[in-house]
């Protein structure tokens, strides 16, 4: 291929790339305005977009959005987005602290979603889940905190772990069967 042909192909590719719309980061201000406007009716896509890219500002925006929500579906979606911080140690630790506090501050019906999201942050959330499993007043929340700990308790069996399992065991009946809650 001659230099002139190569130059022509290169120019064509550059023009084509310039004509394609650039993929931009989400407009966080617009997303937060939408959360403020729609509150519990905000779409899951907006909450997912709010967590991207997984940085300090996304953490702050997601935390703020959670404080505005009080309906299970959007709150569950918002809480689950904290899993994007799992690979960033400082933000993962702060996400665990936030979700743990949400378990304490919310009613059981909403706190269970924070517990589920703590499970997605294992092993960083192990201590928070142990505290919930051993000290929480709600049987439901204690049982839900134990589920993500089962692997850890199986890998490191102990009398305390067995007692925690037995104390937090809740049998859930469904149809003709029963399962661990």
Tally of extended strands?
2
**Structural class of the helices, strands and pairings?**
mainly alpha
Mean pLDDT: 85
Shape: globular
Query: Rounded to an integer, what's the Rg over CA atoms?
Result: 23 Å
Strand order of the largest sheet: 1-2
Put simply, the count of helices is 11
What is the terminal-to-terminal distance? 68 Å
What level of helicity do the residues show?
Answer: 55-70%
Note the beta-strand portion: under 5%
| Element-by-element helix/strand order | HHHHHHHHHHHEE
| Low-confidence runs | 19-23
Task: Give a quick account of the main beta sheet: strands, pairing sense, barrel closure.
Answer: 2 strands, antiparallel
Q: What does this entry look like structurally?
A:
Strand 1 and strand 2 (177-180) form a beta hairpin. The chain has a two-stranded antiparallel sheet with strand order 1-2. 29% of the residues are buried. The protein has helices spanning 3-19, 28-38, 44-50, 56-68, 72-80, 89-105, 108-120, 126-135, 139-146, 150-155, 159-168; strands at residues 171-174, 177-180. The chain is globular and about 50 Å long. Helix content is 67%, strand content 4%. It has 181 residues and is mainly alpha-helical. The chain contains 11 helices and 2 strands; from the N terminus they run αααααααααααββ.
């Amino acid at each position: 291929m001659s230099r002139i042909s190569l130059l022509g192909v290169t120019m064509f590719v550059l023009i084509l790339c310039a004509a394609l719309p650039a993929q931009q980061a989400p407009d966080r201000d617009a997303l937060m305005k939408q959360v403020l406007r729609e509150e519990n009716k905000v779409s899951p896509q907006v909450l997912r977009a709010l967590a991207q890219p997984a940085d300090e500002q996304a953490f702050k925006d997601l935390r703020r959005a959670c404080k505005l929500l009080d309906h299970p579906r959007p709150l569950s979606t918002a809480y689950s987005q904290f899993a994007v911080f799992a690979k960033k140690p400082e933000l993962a630790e702060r996400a665990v602290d936030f979700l743990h506090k949400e378990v304490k501050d919310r009613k059981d019906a909403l706190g269970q979603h924070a517990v589920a999201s703590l499970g997605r942050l294992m092993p960083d959330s192990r201590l928070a889940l142990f505290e919930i499993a051993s000290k929480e007043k709600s049987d439901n929340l204690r049982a839900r905190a134990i589920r993500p700990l089962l692997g850890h308790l199986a890998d490191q069996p102990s009398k305390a772990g067995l007692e925690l399992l037995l104390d937090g065991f809740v049998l859930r009946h469904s149809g003709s069967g029963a399962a661990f809650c």
